[in-house]
């Protein structure tokens, strides 16, 4: 064992102290490059090598680390763009990269509706890494029901509902999918009846077993998907705002403290419950822009997400800069 450790230490010193490449080490020691690579890998595994990165203050990595520490997050990903109109594309690419990185076989993934999730889906279709994935036991699930959107809306907006996004992601990944076959917003009595339906019960059970949830985060302004798409009436929307609504995700509406603003409203939406959501191991929120600042902070206050994909301006706001 000591002889092997001595060999590993020698390889490590040649590579990291002397600056020799793996090929140069293999030639000098008359061993294969594969042996060199394995020695360096084992050095990391047994603790001979420890990697520490000292990020310069003010860099994106520094902001990510600060946010992770402040809010107890597993991971923060910050997207950058020199052009403001390209930021949405960068957010979408980062979100799709995160999704691809998380995928394991088997796995259950829950997705929500919204423009940001739709853009992520479009970016996913262009992601070159998907061809290397094994996905025959990956299941894509909608976190909420879907209400038909009026034909008067642009086609792209009509494609933002969760069932369509789930079907598209499953098609792109060559994975499996379920549909949430019911309206999003119903009466209490109807909701109680729907939750007794075998197909709905099966879907909820699948969602409760999800390994990953990815969700957009909305605000309660006039351009909110919740009102623009006609999911709820203008009267209901205004009432939610008057009760202190700051954020909307998976159709749940919370205040700045992360608490539901209306149990009455929440008892009428067909969506995974917040109690079930927080049991999912990885919960990624994808949102950006000044108009989403308060909404994102409210979701973080409720600890509903443990991964955040956002922009630098939002990151600085959340850090109080």
UniProtKB/TrEMBL annotation:
<keyword id="KW-0804">Transcription</keyword>
<dbReference type="InterPro" id="IPR013324">
    <property type="entry name" value="RNA_pol_sigma_r3/r4-like"/>
</dbReference>
<keyword id="KW-0238">DNA-binding</keyword>
<dbReference type="InterPro" id="IPR013249">
    <property type="entry name" value="RNA_pol_sigma70_r4_t2"/>
</dbReference>
<comment type="similarity">
    <text>Belongs to the SorC transcriptional regulatory family.</text>
</comment>
<dbReference type="InterPro" id="IPR051054">
    <property type="entry name" value="SorC_transcr_regulators"/>
</dbReference>
<dbReference type="InterPro" id="IPR001387">
    <property type="entry name" value="Cro/C1-type_HTH"/>
</dbReference>
<feature type="domain" description="HTH cro/C1-type">
    <location>
        <begin position="17"/>
        <end position="38"/>
    </location>
</feature>
<keyword id="KW-0805">Transcription regulation</keyword>
<dbReference type="InterPro" id="IPR007324">
    <property type="entry name" value="Sugar-bd_dom_put"/>
</dbReference>
<dbReference type="Pfam" id="PF08281">
    <property type="entry name" value="Sigma70_r4_2"/>
</dbReference>
<protein>
    <submittedName>
        <fullName>Winged helix-turn-helix transcriptional regulator</fullName>
    </submittedName>
</protein>
<dbReference type="InterPro" id="IPR037171">
    <property type="entry name" value="NagB/RpiA_transferase-like"/>
</dbReference>
<dbReference type="Pfam" id="PF04198">
    <property type="entry name" value="Sugar-bind"/>
</dbReference>
